[in-house]
Structure formats: structure tokens, C-alpha cells
Amino acid sequence: MRIHYFAAARAAAGVSEEAAGEHATLELVLADACQRHPELEPILPRCSFLVDGMRAELDASLAGAERVDVLPPFAGG
């Protein structure tokens, strides 16, 4: 599985994507990402998440998932 970071999450992680390993839930994969990139921790509570293109909550199962997207709030005008 791969985790993709966007906007402020990308800046905090220092990468746009990376291998995420195998985790049972979205919450666990994000906790693992915070271990590697502590700067993510304050950003994640404001983020939305997609698992294989579908909106997901922290308790979402990652069984068979291939991609997680981390989407901070975007500003536009």
C-alpha cells in the first residue's frame, strides 16, 4: 500500500508519497506515518482521508487497500 500526502501534509512529511506497509486500519497507518514524520501529528486532525478513492474515517479497514490519500483543508479564491 502507498500513502500519498497533499499540501501541508506533503510539506510536513517531506515526501509526496511513500510505502505504508500493512496495517489493519487507517488509524494505525497514520500512527505509523507520524512515527516517521512527527511533523504530521498536528496536521492530521484537520485532514480528510481517502482509501482507494473513497472517503474514510479513522476506523476504516485497510484490508486489500492499495492507496491512502491525506488531504488537509485547501484554501482557494
Automatic annotation (TrEMBL):
Pfam families, per the entry: ThiS
Protein name in UniProt: MoaD/ThiS family protein
